[in-house]
């Protein structure tokens, strides 16, 4: 997805700046630039921490950014910074196809329970009480109920990626990766939301999931779901490092999908 974008000449602006990263708003993508320790975003790059620090010390909001011939040029007020994309290693971040037994899904579910996600997620109790009955046996719900559920969750919560959005990313990723029968119907309904009504960052991540792409840490977790429990929990801990509550919210969405997969298998 990112490769098809960066092959085209683009102009944009610095849209948000943080302690260890910044975002660039191009016409058709929200592009993240961070350091290696911060993890790889599904729509972005990681660069050397020292060079990133120099960029962050000089850039301001709305600075011009040009992407041409695989060179990212950031026009700060007193200096032009360049990042050659050809010097970066490309990481394939498509949603992996899982081939797990019911017992393996149960071990992943058991691992998630050990994290006590209910105390870590960012969504308030009233909102959780609203969505949980709908997620219960969700494959039996009508399309209109699924539409209303997605609409309710989009943008719900605080931060750059509200909790409801992160849960949708985790849930959708597991449905698609598992090949669960609900996946196609769910993704078709999610795709009906062309205007997501949430933050720019969340919109970019949800759009990426629609196209079949996820973050590096989430993909690593999915790829390790056939491993032993200690490895699974270790990769879950990596996901938990995403944002303030984003990692926990994403894992909560994963757990909702796994509960449905296990329940569907038991009743199939």
List the helices and strands and how they pair.
Layout lengths: L1 H5 L3 E8 L3 E5 L4 E6 L8 E4 L1 H10 L5 E5 L2 E5 L4 E5 L17 H13 L10 H11 L7 H11 L9 H16 L3 H9 L9 H11 L5 H8 L5 H12 L5 H21 L2
Helix pairs in contact: 3-10, 3-11, 5-7, 6-7, 6-8, 6-11, 9-10, 10-11
Assign a percent range to the helix content.
40-55%
Give the tally of β-strands.
Answer: 7
Compute the average pLDDT.
90
Give the SSE string.
HEEEEHEEEHHHHHHHHH
Number of helices: 11
- Assembly type of the chains comes to single chain
Strand arrangement in the largest pleated sheet: 4-3-2-1-5-6-7
Which regions have little confidence, pLDDT < 50, spanning 5+ residues?
none
Q: What's the main sheet like?
A: 7 strands, mixed
Report the structural category. alpha+beta
Distance between the termini: 35 Å
* Morphology: globular
Indicate the radius of gyration in whole angstroms: 19 Å
Number of domains: 2
How much strand? 5-15%
Can you tag this structure with a few keywords?
268 residues, alpha+beta, OB fold (Dihydrolipoamide Acetyltransferase, E2P), 47% helix, DUF2877 domain-containing protein, AllH-like
């Amino acid at each position: 997805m990112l490769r098809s974008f960066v092959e085209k000449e683009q102009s944009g602006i610095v849209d948000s700046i943080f302690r260890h990263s910044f975002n660039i708003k191009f016409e058709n993508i929200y592009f993240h630039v961070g350091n290696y320790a911060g993890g790889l975003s599904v729509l972005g790059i990681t660069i050397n921490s020292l060079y990133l620090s120099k960029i962050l010390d000089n850039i301001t909001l709305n600075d011009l950014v040009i992407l041409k011939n695989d060179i990212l040029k950031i026009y700060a007020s007193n200096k032009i910074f360049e990042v050659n994309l050809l010097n970066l290693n490309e990481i394939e971040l498509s949603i992996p196809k899982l081939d797990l037994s019911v017992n393996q899904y149960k071990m992943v579910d058991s691992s998630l329970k050990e994290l006590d996600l209910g105390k870590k997620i960012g969504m308030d109790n009233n909102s959780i009480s609203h969505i949980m009955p709908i997620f219960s046996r969700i494959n039996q719900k009508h399309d209109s109920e699924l539409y209303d559920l997605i609409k309710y969750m989009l943008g719900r919560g605080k931060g750059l990626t509200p909790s409801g959005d992160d849960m949708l990313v985790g849930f959708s990723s597991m449905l698609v990766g598992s090949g669960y029968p609900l996946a196609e119907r769910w993704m078709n309904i999610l795709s009906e939301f062309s205007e997501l009504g949430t933050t720019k960052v969340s919109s970019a991540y949800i759009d990426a999931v629609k196209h079949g792409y996820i973050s590096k840490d989430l993909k690593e977790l999915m790829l390790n779901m056939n491993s032993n429990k200690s490895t699974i929990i270790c990769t879950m801990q990596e996901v938990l490092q995403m944002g303030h509550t984003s990692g926990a919210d994403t894992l909560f969405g994963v757990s909702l999908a796994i509960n449905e997969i296990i329940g569907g298998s038991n009743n199939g």
